[in-house]
Amino acid sequence: MKKALVWIIAVIITLGASYYQRISGPTYPMKISDITGDANYSSKLIRSSETGEYAHVIIDESSAFDKVLLVYSKYPGEFKNDTIHVKNTGGLWEAYLPDQPPAGKLKYYVVLFSNGEEIWSNKDNPAIIRFKDPVPIGVLIPHVLAMLTAMLFSMVTLFMIILKKGNYKRMSYLTVAVLLVGGFILGPIMQNYAFGEFWTGWPNVHDFTDNKTLIAFLIWVIAMIINFKKDRKWAIIVASVSMLIVFSIPHSMGGSEYNYEEGVVETGNK
Fold first, then answer.
1. I want to staple 107 with a disulfide (CB 3.0 to 4.6 A). Which of 75, 155, 233, 242 is the partner?
2. Residue 41, phi then psi, degrees to nearest 5
3. Gap between the Cα atoms of 126 and 224, Å rounded
4. Which structural domain range is residue 121 located in?
């Protein structure tokens, strides 16, 4: 019973941390809600798109507004705004943002009107959309599964120690092995497809995702070394908790960003 409980708790924590990481990241769609005239209205503004195509912005229809404008500009930097008159295509308002280079970003906001009067806008909190080259599904899915599995194994190891059930040392080895594959083999391959760079973490640049993965890996390796000849469970507990903290940090923060003025991809910005 305890062994099953170990896995149940680990699965719940892993899924919870993964969900939080996803919805709190800078590429998760921005929500439109609480507009004047329709308190129950809800729609989303995309914040991620692939290169080679226009970014398709879709806004759900509501009787509360009859006109939509979309205003955008390149980001970061001081660039002039362009305005799109969003079209109603029968139940949806649709617009297309122009394609950008890998890691290129656009800042945009929408303005909703009713009978010529503005009723809602996110001008003070614009959406930032980032473009990336397509990543083959054969790389993306294994990477995601490997990172989820590493987190799961880390939590299983932690609760094996807490509940005193199972071979925590063997599970710690599996954790490090899967983290190595997911974070340092598949991760760089995926990033190279998306932005043309294999590694953007320490010591050269400051990508949060690469660096947090590196920190988690190093803490785990140190914990394994400490436990090699003598049981020091506290080190494994520290490694597992560190993994949970790292895994909960929003994904893609401080990631690759195209500098339009210099014409180069930079890393370490929001």
1. 75
2. -70, 145
3. 45
4. 36-132
pLDDT recorded at residue 254: 64
In a domain, 218, yes or no: yes
Q: In what order do the strands lie in the sheet with 87-88?
A: 55-60, 92-97, 87-88
195 touches 201 (CB < 8 A): no
How many alpha carbons fall within 13 Å on the CB side of residue 200? 25
Structure tokens at 34: 């609480």
Task: Tally Cβ neighbours within 10 Å of residue 252.
Answer: 19
The predicted pLDDT at position 177 comes to 97
Contact 102, 135 (CB under 8 A): no
Same domain for 125 and 151: no
Report yes or no: 166 and 160 within 8 Å, Cβ to Cβ.
Answer: yes
Residues with pLDDT less than 70, the chain: 205, 252-254, 268-270
Whether a cis peptide bond, with omega within 30° of 0, leads into 26 is no
